[in-house]
């Protein structure tokens, strides 16, 4: 059997280690990852290896040559012009693969039983067998769902947190029959997980998952790189060491001198031709490459030191990575998780702080302290983007320095000379962050259309009319007055896709940002008539005569936000009798308690004035809470149902879009009006995209997110909804109280349970496996539906916190209470059981 070694990766998340080295050639215990893979193949009697190369191909080819020194026969296939993807590069060598063959990733460390996997493949008469494994947190991997016969039924490539339906993931190792390659086009970039396997699934070809026991580590980032070294030293994975074991778990190479006064704790590896000076202290977990010199009194606490490094006297290295040929001078300190690229110099008594990365061939002056504070890169912050944009504590997480870098990262994903809009709410903190973002964007050659303090619905409306690549909006978070929320929009005004978010994250974390020359620095302009454009679009979608003749009296609380600068003027133009509260601009954010007090005040004013209804506009113009003529607030699920009822009464047989957790009252109302309901993932971007891709949609959103009228613009708009409400209530001759009294009586309860990140995947798999497939909906989280009515339970992992949310919905109150109690207990018990099995480091 032949093996195809996928060795084309550049290892961008391992920078700066892979600036001058392909990822498969990064050393683990002083041997390249690719050599450990070849040793694994040999152990299972696979000695014909075809390596597919793209990034720095000569490095791997020069190392292995024809493979004879390593006991295998090596053949190479180089992707010269452009990368063809994991499947495309294998299709390129199809003439070499005339029988069952194995594909294995060149960037993972494993000791899987390949022989057993191949036997499984043959027994099942499979066309494609994926070697799978179970991991505690599958969010970075491709999740695979299979049935009780191990036949694969579904793929989910790098899921978001709420999409984790299993903790069984694709390891990038496959056993394939040559005929599956016939499904692939020639010389076209394509991927096994994204292209070939879904196609085989669609064609009902026999495709199975073999869940392997043993060790597997995707060496995809620096933490995993260090962990793989330590696991190898602790024999958690079966690897062949390059050196003789001179004592228990201490491996030392040839021609290495260790001063008798040096103290070395096992396990540790020291390579060939090294010199270890007097009184050097080497703690357990340290890996030292070949030709390394370590000066007297140096202290090494679990560093990984590559070939040819020179460590000076009294230097201190702690759980860091020192790359090839780097010099760390006398008394210098390189601290935890720091990485120093190859051929760099760290001067005497210099210090590199924890987590700092130094690119190759850099010089750090003597006595300098390199201290870059990467708040968004620490382990507590898993990604730059959360469920909704980039968010964090104002002036603590979201600082001017952070915003400059974020702006440059975003701008670097756009072409030089691109234009973007930038808008914000009226808060001083938002102005500060916006100006920093603008500086970052300008530094990479992006021009700015500065909309200043603008309600977000206005920004979304004008973006498609301005020939811009996208937009940014900065505001105080609607639900957290101490948080800043930064949202990125595409050229249509929709929040950007996950793939674009990943590009921005990649540029940010890799610090892969261009720098413009002086004449290329971006420009800032201030477009005029922005509000007029919004007003024009606004008026086109309303029956102005109906509003003028309605004689409706409405009380509107603007909560001291910028929407108060726009809407009163517009409603006045329409002849509406609008009583305005709190329309002046306030520079400070309001707490939730303060907003609740304003709702109570609003109810009293509506009652006193005998108004038709009241409304509080929040979230910079996006959201609203209604108050009926009796002063009773209408919000949340009731507000969702009320808006759906009004809009479908005006637009029978229309389509509404709601998040997966919305009450089933929506479906009951839709049935009354012969309408259709589309449910989406529980995030704003999914709602916006669904509203834009379905032309029959007349309303999207919920009481919690706000509502979208897609004919106006793709985002949420509380301001337009007020005018639309006046129009609909007038035409339908109804009041809010009468609409509310006609809504279906659905019981909808929610509860939040603590759930560590490492348990979420296992919990979702447990729920999928313990319920009949026909009762499950996997739009977002796991929804368990009752087949006979609208009753269901939804378990939805939180995207940014170690929590899961339970939603229970039914017409039967007792069923809701019993189900909530039952699933709360099940989830808590499962979490506690899993936590007991997680090893604790002492």
Amount of beta strand: 25-35%
Which structural class matches the secondary elements?
alpha/beta
Number of helices: 21
* Overall mean confidence score, pLDDT: 89
Task: Give the helix level as a range of percent.
Answer: 25-40%
Largest sheet: 8 strands, mixed
Shape: globular
Outline the low-pLDDT stretches: 373-382
Distance between the termini: 45 Å
In quaternary terms, these chains amount to single chain
Number of strands: 55
In the sheet with the most strands, the strands line up as 14-15-18-21-24-27-30-33
Radius of gyration: 30 Å
Provide an overview of this structure.
29% of the residues lie in helices and 26% in strands. It is an alpha/beta fold. Strands 14-15-18-21-24-27-30-33 form an 8-stranded mixed sheet, with helices on one face. Strands 5-4-1-6-11-8-12 form a 7-stranded mixed sheet, sandwiched between helices. Strand 2 (27-28) and strand 3 (31-32) form a beta hairpin. The protein is globular.
Task: Report a brief summary of the structure.
The protein is of the alpha/beta class and about 850 residues long.
